[in-house]
Design goal:
alpha/beta, Rossmann fold, 2 domains, 4-stranded parallel beta sheet, 11 helices, about 40% helix, globular, disordered N terminus, binds beta-D-glucopyranose
């Protein structure tokens, strides 16, 4: 089938994914590339990645693509060898949510040798020219929403304080974590300087660039929990209370909440404000129970749909739509990106935003 025919069929509204004559070619150099997509996700231990991977896989299969979906147990070596297998299996498009954003250069160079197109999914891949597109949510905005929620809830703009704050950051090897922290810290750090926010543990990075000093490796709940245990036992003796915890995501929030619980904190007036991200079921339950204040919801279905649209365009050889060509410099190139908009969910809008949209079932969260 010629490209002209493909375009004509596409124009007639017939979905042609899977039979395109786009330029990516087959490893054997044949004239047609079947739509063959390798999806590489970091871990099954977090609900969101299961939804991300399975949602995208279902869309692609429905469109007639062959799909290899792999989860790498948060282990970089495993992710690299899974991607190598996908390349060897003839994948023409790779969708990768990196575990360590700076260690995939060599494997992506192999992918490029066989002209595969690489989409960084949710997390940017750094230090390589071999990443073609980036589909994500506005990561800086995620942090801004967390910071602004805290600013408003505590009345910081009205001069209220001082409040005891404990800030946390995400995994040092995840490029997103830097953006989440910067977004939040740009809102909160002026209040740390003015003394309206006090950080008893001293774990307040001097600048956005120091964020990794408080990063929790692998986004692990148990590591966040023991870090919070240490802070509480070392710096909160004699009845001092934490008033607010900046948690960049839900997996950290779960650990922090467990720590607070074992230190005797109970939902109610002196329970701290705690932020999160992802709208994981356990965290939405915690929000309903008053153990977490908010989460930043990133509708993974929208990210899947956006990535699917990118794949359709790549496969059809048409222009891939992006909306940001400035922000995501990976050290080798500015990666053309499509940023989706995250939004805040609190107890008041769990039903209207998460349940009514079908993102979660009422029964998932005990409603
Ligand atoms: C994602 C978050 C997620 C975190 C831990 C980040 O890269 O953007 O949504 O909570 O990884 O998996």
């Amino acid at each position: 089938m010629s490209l002209k025919t493909v375009v004509a069929i596409a124009a007639a509204g017939v979905f042609v994914l899977g039979i395109s004559a786009c330029s990516s070619g087959t490893p054997s150099g044949g004239s047609k590339a079947d739509c063959s997509v390798g999806i590489s996700m970091p871990t099954r231990s977090l609900e969101r990645w299961i939804n991300d991977g399975e949602g995208l896989q279902a869309k692609l299969k429905k469109a007639g693509c062959s799909v290899d979906l792999q989860y790498a147990d948060n282990k970089t070596d495993q992710q690299i060898s899974q991607i190598q297998n996908q390349i060897a299996g003839g994948a023409t498009i790779l969708v990768v949510a990196a575990i360590d954003g700076s260690s995939l250069g060599p494997v992506l160079a192999q992918a490029k040798k066989q002209k595969a197109t690489v989409i960084a999914y949710d997390r940017l891949i750094n230090g390589t020219p071999d990443v073609d597109y980036y589909a994500t949510f506005d990561n800086y905005k995620v942090g801004t929403l967390q910071g602004q929620y805290i600013e408003t809830s505590l009345g910081l703009k009205d001069g209220k304080g001082p409040f005891n704050l404990e800030p946390f950051a995400g995994s040092p090897d995840d490029n997103n974590a830097k953006f989440f922290f910067a977004g939040a810290w740009d809102v909160l750090s002026p209040y740390v300087k003015s003394g309206q926010l006090v950080v008893p543990s001293g774990k307040a990075p001097k600048s956005d660039d120091d964020w990794a000093s408080i990063g929790i490796q692998g986004w692990a709940s148990d590591k966040a929990q023991s870090e919070m245990d240490n802070r509480l036992s070392s710096f909160y003796a004699g009845g001092k209370k934490v008033n607010v915890v900046l948690s960049p995501n839900d997996s950290l929030a779960i650990g922090i909440e467990a720590s607070l619980k074992s230190a005797g904190y109970k939902p109610g007036s002196d329970y701290p404000i705690i932020s999160g991200q992802d709208a994981d079921k356990a965290n939405v339950k915690a929000i309903l129970a008053g153990e977490q204040s908010m989460t930043v919801w990133k509708d993974t279905r929208a990210l899947g749909e956006r990535t699917f649209q990118m794949i359709k365009s790549i496969d059809a050889g048409t222009k891939v739509e992006v909306n940001d060509t400035k922000t995501y410099d990976n050290g080798k190139k500015v990666v053309p990106s499509y940023l989706l908009t995250p939004e805040v969910v609190t107890k008041a809008d769990v039903k209207t935003k998460l349940i009514d949209s079908g993102f979660l079932k009422a029964s998932d969260v005990g409603l």
